[in-house]
Amino acid sequence: MTSSSVEQSVHAYQIVHQRHAIERIAQRGIREEDVEHLLLAGETIKEKAMKCVICKQGETQSGTTTMTLEKDTTTVIFKKVPTEVCETCSEAYPDAATTRHLLHVVEEAARAGVQVDVRSYAA
Ligand SMILES: [Zn+2]
């Protein structure tokens, strides 16, 4: 997969939580090509006790969240997604590897004609 196709597939989805992770990446001043490199390499961006960019009060800690991803007419609800979670407002910050896995699963579900699916996250 080329970096441009990664970018296209990221933009093709409506991502409920990931937009905030992208905001976080933007806020930290990481260049777009570095983010793509991390996506392609399957590496994760990790930080300890990150300040939440949504409420600007809480700090994040390891936890799990429920995420809903849509593509075309397909909706997949993932439970127990491992992610950093804001202790104050519960905003979630999934890493690049997790996001890529979620996108892959939604892509397959859309191809299979799934309308709604609820599943537990599994790497
Ligand atoms: Zn917060």
Write up this protein.
The protein has 4 helices and 5 strands, in the order αβααβββαβ. The protein has a single domain, classed as Ubiquitin-like (UB roll). A hairpin with a 2-residue loop joins β2 (60-71) and β3. Strands 1, 2, 3, 4 and 5 form a 5-stranded mixed β-sheet that branches. It is elongated. It is 37% helix and 28% strand. The structure holds zinc ion.
Q: SSE order in H/E notation?
A: HEHHEEEHE
CATH architecture: Roll
- The CATH C-level class name: Alpha Beta
Bound molecules: zinc ion
Rg, Å, rounded: 14 Å
Mean pLDDT: 73
- CATH domain fold name: Ubiquitin-like (UB roll)
Please tally the β strands and state the result: 5
- How much helical structure, as a percent, in the residues? 25-40%
From the spread of the alpha carbons, the general shape counts as: elongated
Show unreliable segments.
9-19
The biggest beta sheet reads: 5 strands, mixed
Strand portion, in percent? 25-35%
Number of H- or I-type helical stretches? 4
Number of domains: 1
The secondary structure category is alpha+beta
Oligomeric state of this protein:
single chain
Give the N-terminus to C-terminus distance in angstroms. Answer: 19 Å
